[in-house]
Design a protein that fits this description.
The protein has one domain: Oxidized Rhodanese, domain 1 (3-Layer(aba) Sandwich). The protein has a five-stranded parallel beta sheet with strand order 1-5-4-2-3. The chain is built from five helices and five strands.
């Protein structure tokens, strides 16, 4: 499900079962991440799938990348793997005006 930045933040802040997932490359993450995000690079292919399968499917995942394209794909993959709640941040880090921290 695609959410605007405002909706993504509002839903995230109200969600006690939330996990923030950054699907960018390590180099991109080195430029800064959304606080408390975990990084699983979608470009790892099967490695990405394997790491996703280790996650708790009962959690709600707030997924982002640089522009929103890779995270949308990640949400699709997560849905196929049985994750019920994966939320894509529209516009990704390019449009993000919230807090950014060093990984």
């Amino acid at each position: 499900m695609n959410l605007t930045q405002e909706d993504w933040i509002a839903q995230l802040e109200a969600d006690e079962n939330a996990v923030i997932l950054d699907v960018r490359t390590e180099d991109e993450c080195d430029e800064g991440i959304i606080p408390n995000a975990i990084n699983i690079d979608i470009h790892k292919g099967q490695g990405f799938i394997s790491e996703l399968e280790e996650l708790d499917k009962s959690k709600n995942y707030y997924v982002y990348c640089r522009s929103g394209a890779r995270s949308a794909k990640a949400c699709e993959i997560m849905n196929e793997l049985g994750f019920d709640n994966a939320y894509n941040l529209l516009g990704g880090m390019l449009d993000w005006d919230g807090e950014v921290v060093a990984p």
